[in-house]
From TrEMBL:
Protein name (record): CS domain-containing protein
Originating species: Drosophila ananassae
An example molecular function term from Gene Ontology annotations: prostaglandin-E synthase activity
GO BP annotation list: chaperone-mediated protein complex assembly; protein folding
Stored InterPro entries: CS_dom, HSP20-like_chaperone, p23-like
Encoding gene (name): Dana\GF23063
Family: Belongs to the p23/wos2 family.
Stretches with biased composition (Acidic residues): 145-156
Pfam families named in the record: CS (PF04969)
GO cellular component, one term: nuclear membrane
Length: 182
């Protein structure tokens, strides 16, 4: 995988139904990369320490489409978007390696599970209807709280949360009554 003096860069990856992301998590110069249907090769030199030369070859778990690869140099990292040859089931791992690669980890910020792909990407969760609804009449959004219909605001009818609370309250009242007046 690496020759003498060359080390693998820290890499994170994520996947979607139709693509995978490979992120080289180090700022590099003199970058060379090549994507084939079955592998990804990267070479680069660390910007801050020219003695650190990176090189790695990843053998993909399944085939990818090398014609659809895009890359972005974000500064602190390089992000490669690589489309799978066939969209479909998620890969259990990025590579065909049987052992865990110490420099490779999952990037959960970009990860989307198979079940997430079925959801509408415009759905922002449970507050979507509340925040995204048209009309803009905020007063009507809280009608079910009945704020104007306050009959009595008392804590007298709230039950105790534990047996100890009830004992403490009874003991405290009893102590007050048993104390002689000074």
């Amino acid at each position: 995988m690496s020759a003498a003096g060359l080390i693998p860069p820290p890499i994170s990856w994520a996947q979607r139904n139709e693509l995978i992301y490979v992120i080289i998590d180090v700022e590099c110069k003199d970058i060379e990369h090549k994507v084939t249907e079955k592998s990804f090769t990267f070479k680069g030199v660390n910007v801050l320490d020219a003695s650190k030369k990176y090189e790695v070859t990843l053998n993909f778990f399944h085939e990818v489409d090398p014609e659809k690869v895009t890359s972005k140099n974000i500064g602190r990292c390089l992000e490669f978007t690589i489309y799978k040859k066939e969209a479909g089931p998620y890969w259990p791992t990025l590579t065909t390696d049987k052992t865990k690669l110490h420099f490779l980890k999952a990037n959960f910020a970009k990860w989307r599970d198979e079940s997430d792909d079925e959801e509408d990407p415009k759905d922002n969760g449970m507050f979507n209807n509340f925040m995204g609804s048209s009309g803009g009449d905020w007063n009507n959004k809280f009608d079910d709280f009945n704020v104007d219909d306050e009959e009595e605001d008392s804590d007298d009818n709230i039950p105790s949360l534990s047996q100890n609370d009830e004992d403490d309250e009874e003991g405290a009242e009893g102590d007050k009554e048993k104390k002689p007046a000074a």
